[in-house]
Amino acid sequence: MRFSLNRRRFSDLSEQEIVALAISSEEDDARIYRSYAERLRADFPATATVFDGMAAEEDSHRQRLVDLHRDRFGDVIPLIRREHVAGYYARRPVWLIENLGLDRIRAEAEAMERDAERFYLEAAKRTSDAATRKLLGDLAAAEAGHQNKAEKLEQHHLTEDARSSEEEDAHRKFILTWVQPGLAGLMDGSVSTLAPIFATAFATQDTWTTFLVGLAASVGAGISMGFTEAASDDGQLSGRGSPIKRGFASGIMTTVGGLGHALPYLIPDFWTATITAFVVVFIELWAIAWIQNKYMDTPFFRAALQVVLGGALVFAAGVLIGSG
């Protein structure tokens, strides 16, 4: 809070400080575009080239602003950045964006250009110098036209075949990194915990004890599956992506799958809890079949037969053991 109170208001900035802020902002944006390019270069080289071109554009804007500052105010540029100005548009950390999908990164780049255009329009209103106002207006127009520039770069570097190939690679990577390990975790958590949970339920008919067993089984299975997935493949040769991402996807979905039919046992009445758990299990198994059909191209009825049959066998084993 103290940091935000110490920020300068945009309306209080001098013309020199506005130009200095524009210089640092252009420098930051160029770095962000180059970071995107490096992040995408291995898997999406054509899009990386587009971002290289956009970074070069930001460099040219920065140089024009530096030349203007030198002519009007001298060589010493004040140190002022986005975070020093209250209400100034902020950039999301690169590490937060770069792990998202290709379309999300492109959308973020478009938002960056819109923010920059608004800044230059407001900055132009704050200056009385004709040359400075003209340059700021030109840069606002340039930022507005960056979408056209990006489209031209894409037409040159990102042909229809290249775009199709990149989108295919992005989809494949999404499947291998998130869907496949997440699905494996959901199946393991939903099916493997059926036996201990329902065995405990029918053996004790104590809902709280059943919940504790289900919680322990779900969390334990999630930790085990997460570490197993992360340690099984570093993703370098298989192309399955970050082992940490896969481990989280598998571990979290395993835990969710088990907790789905453990949570109903927070209901004090045994039969109400058990019937609710039956319904949840049914929903879980059909959800697994739907995911297999949508993302893994498994025929729906075959996926449903496999999952429901397997789940029914494990469920029956738990009930029989618990009843005995």
From TrEMBL:
<feature type="transmembrane region" description="Helical">
    <location>
        <begin position="182"/>
        <end position="202"/>
    </location>
</feature>
<feature type="transmembrane region" description="Helical">
    <location>
        <begin position="303"/>
        <end position="322"/>
    </location>
</feature>
<dbReference type="InterPro" id="IPR009078">
    <property type="entry name" value="Ferritin-like_SF"/>
</dbReference>
<dbReference type="InterPro" id="IPR008217">
    <property type="entry name" value="Ccc1_fam"/>
</dbReference>
<dbReference type="Pfam" id="PF02915">
    <property type="entry name" value="Rubrerythrin"/>
</dbReference>
<dbReference type="GO" id="GO:0005384">
    <property type="term" value="F:manganese ion transmembrane transporter activity"/>
</dbReference>
<protein>
    <submittedName>
        <fullName>VIT1/CCC1 transporter family protein</fullName>
    </submittedName>
</protein>
<keyword id="KW-1133">Transmembrane helix</keyword>
<dbReference type="InterPro" id="IPR012347">
    <property type="entry name" value="Ferritin-like"/>
</dbReference>
<dbReference type="GO" id="GO:0046872">
    <property type="term" value="F:metal ion binding"/>
</dbReference>
<feature type="transmembrane region" description="Helical">
    <location>
        <begin position="208"/>
        <end position="227"/>
    </location>
</feature>
<dbReference type="GO" id="GO:0012505">
    <property type="term" value="C:endomembrane system"/>
</dbReference>
<dbReference type="InterPro" id="IPR017040">
    <property type="entry name" value="UCP035918_rubreryth/DUF125"/>
</dbReference>
<dbReference type="GO" id="GO:0016491">
    <property type="term" value="F:oxidoreductase activity"/>
</dbReference>
<dbReference type="Pfam" id="PF01988">
    <property type="entry name" value="VIT1"/>
</dbReference>
<dbReference type="GO" id="GO:0030026">
    <property type="term" value="P:intracellular manganese ion homeostasis"/>
</dbReference>
<dbReference type="InterPro" id="IPR003251">
    <property type="entry name" value="Rr_diiron-bd_dom"/>
</dbReference>
<keyword id="KW-0472">Membrane</keyword>
<feature type="transmembrane region" description="Helical">
    <location>
        <begin position="273"/>
        <end position="291"/>
    </location>
</feature>
<keyword id="KW-0812">Transmembrane</keyword>
<feature type="domain" description="Rubrerythrin diiron-binding">
    <location>
        <begin position="17"/>
        <end position="153"/>
    </location>
</feature>
<feature type="transmembrane region" description="Helical">
    <location>
        <begin position="248"/>
        <end position="267"/>
    </location>
</feature>
